[in-house]
C-alpha cells in the first residue's frame, strides 16, 4: 500500500509543544522579518500575498505537520490564512512547490524562520533515513544519532525517521523514548559498554544480569567488542544466555583490529567492523548451534558502507547508524510570488501552483 493511502492525516498541532507566545512575538524570527512586519503595520499596509515554499533536491518531506502547527498556533489569525501543503513522507522534486500560504502578510511574516527551519531539519533526516533503509534492502535500521546532537532535536528527528520507515515499509528503531513519543513508541537498545564496565569488564556477567532484569518484550542484544575479541565474546554470551539472546552487536573501533583477525591480515582492510569479522562471528555462532542469534553492526556505517555490505551479502541482520543520518543539508526557500493578486516574485522566481497540494483545515 502506498504511503499516500496510509498516512493522509496530520499530527495535531498541540503535540509539538511549541513556545507559542514567544513564536507569536517573533522571538525566533530573523530580525528582518520582524522589521518588515513592523514597517507594514506602521504604514497601515496589509498586503494579501501568496507565499510559496520549495527546496532544491530530490527529497522526502519531513516537518510539514510541524510547520503547519507553527502557522496554526502562532500566526495572528489562522482563520484568515489559506494553506495548501503536501504531507510528511511525500516525495518532492527539486524546485517543486511543497506549500503555499495565502493571506495578509502581517499575520505570518514573523514565522518564516521557524517553519523553514523545521522543514529543513526534518526533511534532511527523513531523506537520509529513506536512503539508508533503501540501501539496507529492507533490513532493520536502528536510528542512533541522539548522542551526536542536542537533546531538544530528538523528538522531531525521531518522528522524521519513523516517517522514513513508513515510506520504505521497513523497520526503524530509535534509541530514546523522546524520539518515539510522537507516535507512541519507545526507545530500544543493547547491553552497553557502560554496563559491561560496571561489572568490571565482564560482558557475560553484565549480559546475564541484564537478562535477569529485562522483560520478555525486550530483544536482548549485547555489545561483544569490549575486549576486542568479538568471536569469543559472542560465543560466551550465547552460551550463557541461550534462547534469551536475540542478537549480538559488533561495534569495533575503526582504530582497532579484532583479535580474531590478527592471523589473517594482509589482503583486506582489517580495522573496525568489516566483512571478514562479520562472517567469522556468524560462522562461530552457527557452528555452536546459535543460528537464531542475530548480528547487528554499528560504528561508522554510512549509505556507501551499507551498500557494499549488501552487494557482498554480508550476513548482517540489522544496521545501527548514527551521525551520518544528521549530516548534510536540505534547505527550504519561501518567496512571495503574488501580492494583491498580481505577480510579485523576484527575478528568477515565479508562481508555480501544484495540483498535489491539499488544503489544510
Tell me what you see in this structure.
The chain is of the alpha/beta class and 361 residues long. The protein folds into 2 domains: 3-124 and 328-359, nicotinate phosphoribosyltransferase (Alpha-Beta Barrel); 138-326, Aldolase class I (TIM Barrel). The protein is built from 11 helices and 14 strands. The strands form 3 sheets. It has a 6-stranded antiparallel beta sheet with strand order 13-12-1-5-3-14. Strands 7-6-11-10-9-8 form a 6-stranded parallel beta sheet. Strand 12 and strand 13 (342-343) form a beta hairpin. The longest helix has 24 residues, at 112-135. The radius of gyration is 25 Å and the shape is elongated. Mean pLDDT is 93; it is low at 1-6.
Question: SSE layout and pairings?
Answer:
Layout: H1 3-6, H2 20-24, H3 31-43, E1 48-55, E2 59-60, H4 64-74, E3 82-85, E4 91-92, E5 99-104, H5 112-135, E6 141-143, H6 154-168, E7 172-174, H7 193-198, H8 203-213, E8 220-223, H9 230-241, E9 245-250, H10 275-287, E10 294-297, H11 303-311, E11 318-321, E12 332-339, E13 342-343, E14 358-359
Parallel strand pairs: 6-7, 6-11, 8-9, 9-10, 10-11
Antiparallel strand pairs: 1-5, 1-12, 2-4, 3-5, 3-14, 12-13
Helix pairs in contact: 4-5, 5-6, 8-9, 9-10
Strand content: 15-25%
CATH topology of the largest domain: TIM Barrel
Q: How can the largest sheet be summarized?
A: 6 strands, antiparallel
How large is the count of helical segments?
A: 11
Total strands: the figure is 14
Spans of at least 5 consecutive residues with low confidence: 1-6
Domain count: the total is 2
| N-end to C-end Cα span | 25 Å
Strand order across the largest sheet: 13-12-1-5-3-14
CATH architectural designation of the largest domain: Alpha-Beta Barrel
Q: Which structural class do the helices and strands define?
A: alpha/beta
Provide the succession of SSEs: HHHEEHEEEHEHEHHEHEHEHEEEE
Amino acid at each position: 500500500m502506498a504511503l499516500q493511502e496510509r498516512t493522509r492525516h496530520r499530527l495535531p498541532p498541540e503535540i509539538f509543544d511549541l513556545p507559542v507566545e514567544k513564536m507569536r512575538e517573533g522571538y525566533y524570527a530573523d530580525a528582518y522579518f520582524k522589521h518588515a512586519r513592523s514597517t507594514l503595520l506602521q504604514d497601515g499596509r496589509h498586503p494579501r500575498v501568496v507565499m510559496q515554499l520549495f527546496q532544491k533536491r530530490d527529497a522526502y518531506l519531513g516537518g510539514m505537520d510541524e510547520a503547519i502547527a507553527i502557522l496554526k498556533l502562532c500566526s495572528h489569525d489562522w482563520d484568515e490564512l489559506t494553506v495548501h501543503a503536501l504531507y510528511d513522507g511525500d516525495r518532492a522534486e527539486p524546485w517543486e512547490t511543497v506549500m503555499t500560504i495565502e493571506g495578509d502578510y502581517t499575520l505570518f511574516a514573523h514565522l518564516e524562520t521557524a517553519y523553514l527551519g523545521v522543514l529543513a531539519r526534518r526533511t534532511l533526516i527523513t531523506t537520509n533515513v529513506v536512503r539508508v533503509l533503501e540501501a539496507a534492502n529492507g533490513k532493520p535500521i536502528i536510528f542512533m544519532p541522539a548522542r551526536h546532537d542536542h537533546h531538544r532535536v530528538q523528538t522531531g528527528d525521531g518522528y522524521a525517521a519513523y516517517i522514513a520507515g513508513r515510506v520504505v515499509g521497513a523497520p526503524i528503531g530509535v534509541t530514546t523514548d523522546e524520539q518515539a513519543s510522537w507516535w507512541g513508541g519507545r526507545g530500544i537498545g543493547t547491553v552497553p559498554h557502560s554496563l559491561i564496565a560496571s561489572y568490571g569488564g565482564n560482558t557475560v556477567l553484565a549480559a546475564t544480569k541484564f537478562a535477569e532484569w529485562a522483560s520478555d518484550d525486550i530483544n536482548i542484544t549485547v555489545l561483544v567488542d569490549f575486549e576486542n575479541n568479538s568471536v569469543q565474546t559472542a560465543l560466551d554470551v550465547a552460551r550463557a544466555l541461550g534462547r534469551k539472546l536475540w542478537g549480538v552487536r559488533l561495534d569495533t573501533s575503526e582504530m582497532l583490529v579484532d583479535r580474531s583477525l590478527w592471523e589473517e591480515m594482509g589482503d583486506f582492510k582489517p580495522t573496525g567492523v568489516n566483512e571478514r569479522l562479520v562472517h567469522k562471528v556468524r560462522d562461530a555462532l552457527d557452528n555452536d548451534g546459535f543460528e537464531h542469534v542475530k548480528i547487528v553492526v554499528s560504528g561508522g556505517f554510512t549509505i556507501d558502507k551499507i551498500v557494499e555490505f549488501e552487494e557482498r551479502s554480508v550476513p548482517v541482520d540489522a544496521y545501527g547508524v548514527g551521525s551520518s543520518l544528521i549530516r548534510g543539508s536540505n534547505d527550504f526557500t519561501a518567496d512571495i510570488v503574488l501580492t494583491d493578486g498580481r505577480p510579485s516574485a523576484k527575478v528568477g522566481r515565479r508562481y508555480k501552483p501544484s495540483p498535489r497540494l491539499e488544503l489544510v483545515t
